[in-house]
Design brief:
CATH architecture of one domain: 3-Layer(aba) Sandwich
Shape: elongated
Distance between the termini: 151 Å
Strand order of the largest sheet: 1-2-4-3-5-6-7-8
Structural class: alpha/beta
Largest sheet: 8 strands, mixed
CATH class of one domain: Alpha Beta
CATH topology of one domain: Rossmann fold
Strand content: 5-15%
Radius of gyration: 42 Å
Order of helices and strands: HHHEEEHEHHHHHHEHEHEHEH
Length: 403
């Protein structure tokens, strides 16, 4: 009977023990949650920085990728001997060279490809460079580096709203509390002013100096002396203040330099009767270079344009540059859009105003993608025009005797 009473007492006491244990567990949980929240509030920057880590993006150089694919293609078909090296501004450039196959050289042709193309581009560049060597022309097609791209417009800054301005005008609670504390401190200072130090400053300084040895006193004086400011010559400062050259001008100079190096390479190979075939936007760099090179002598040069377009970035007035060239010029047009027709009409008008009788404009149908043979209509018309207006001949150079 006694055991039964004990069991009943234990059963009745268990809910009381459970009720006493529950608050302790909840308090511990609250403390742990409060501690974690305090840690997170103490380090908000670390949490934001971890969630906003910058991503590194890689922009591929499409021009180099296209050049690598062309080189791999030519080596696959055992045509690696066509690849030659040209001296560039920032390093060696690559080009594709084919010598003439007749034994009667007519001259050298420099071929320039358009944007997003390469030196072995099908339908236009490749058929011309492979077709003309059978008629006495040495062809050199060069690779251009990545073309410049027009920058995106800048995002305008966000304008402050009226609510933000009102919030800035209203003083915060912290500012009000700090101003009240400053005013209270100023009042206490006025009630209990600080007594002036009766000791003379000069006397105290002399006493402190007498206690310091001579060497230590000199060291202390030397440490208190300010450092001598670094002198910058006016010339170097002026050089540092010079503005950087715009990227548009640098790009235009680089393109003109690359075309110049292509012509110089043909001169090294013994070709001095030179023709430039420019496709698309490359006509701008060719016209600018010839405008500079032909200031003294215009003999031995000719220009062929294929769907030439004026460059908008960087801005180049192609018609004005072409109008200054008094050389044989063939302007081939395959784009029959209304916009292109207007540009072609303006170009022809600029040539007629300059009385350039050596300029010829020719409309041809566009080469279809399935016509991959070398003797397409564009190649044949270029060969016929070269025979009539730009054919050269091989001459021997006599050495001058010493008299």
């Amino acid at each position: 009977m006694f055991l039964v009473h004990i069991i009943i007492l234990l059963v009745l006491a268990m809910p009381v023990w459970a009720a006493e244990d529950e608050p302790t567990d909840s308090s511990d949980t609250q403390n742990s949650e409060q501690g974690s929240s305090e840690q997170e509030s103490d380090n908000p920057a670390s949490s934001e920085s971890s969630s906003r880590e910058p991503l590194n993006y890689v922009t591929p150089n499409k021009a180099k990728q296209r050049m690598a694919e062309v080189v791999r293609h030519l080596k696959t078909f055992q045509r690696g001997n066509e690849i030659i090296e040209i001296n560039g501004k920032d390093g060696p450039m690559a080009g594709l060279y084919l010598p003439e196959n007749t034994g009667k050289p007519q001259g050298g042709i420099l071929i320039l490809h358009d944007i997003d193309q390469h030196a072995h581009w099908p339908n236009t560049i490749s058929p011309v460079r492979e077709y003309l060597p059978d008629y006495g022309w040495n062809t050199l097609s060069i690779f251009f580096d990545q073309y410049i791209e027009k920058p995106l417009p800048k995002i305008p800054p966000l304008s402050a709203t009226q609510d933000d301005l009102n919030q800035d005008e209203q003083p915060s609670e912290d500012q009000e509390a700090s101003s009240e504390a400053d005013s209270q401190q100023a009042a206490d200072t006025n009630e209990n002013p600080i007594e002036d130090n009766p000791i003379d400053e000069q006397t105290a300084q002399d006493e402190n100096t007498e206690d310091i040895p001579a060497g230590d006193a000199l060291d202390a004086i030397a440490n208190n002396i300010d450092e001598v400011p670094e002198f910058v010559p006016p010339i170097n400062q002026a050089v540092l203040e010079q503005p950087a050259i715009p990227i548009e001008e640098t790009f235009l100079e680089d393109m003109i330099f690359n075309v110049e190096q292509g012509l110089s390479k043909l001169n090294e190979l013994g070709q001095y009767n030179l023709v430039i075939i420019a496709n698309g936007f490359s006509a701008n760099w060719a016209a600018k270079l010839l405008e500079q090179r032909l200031s003294a002598n215009s003999l031995g040069y000719a220009l062929i344009l294929i769907d030439a377009k004026s460059s908008e970035y960087p801005e180049v007035d192609l018609n004005a540059s072409l109008a200054k060239l008094n050389i044989p010029m063939l302007d081939i047009v395959t784009d029959d859009s209304d916009e292109n027709k207007y540009r072609i009409k303006q170009r022809k008008g600029a040539m007629l105003r300059k009385q350039n009788s050596k300029y010829m404009q020719l409309y041809l149908p566009a080469v279809k993608p399935d016509l991959t043979q070398t003797n397409n209509i564009i190649s044949r018309r270029i060969r016929g025009w070269l025979l009539t207006h730009a054919a050269g001949e091989e001459v021997s150079v006599k050495q001058k005797g010493n008299y």
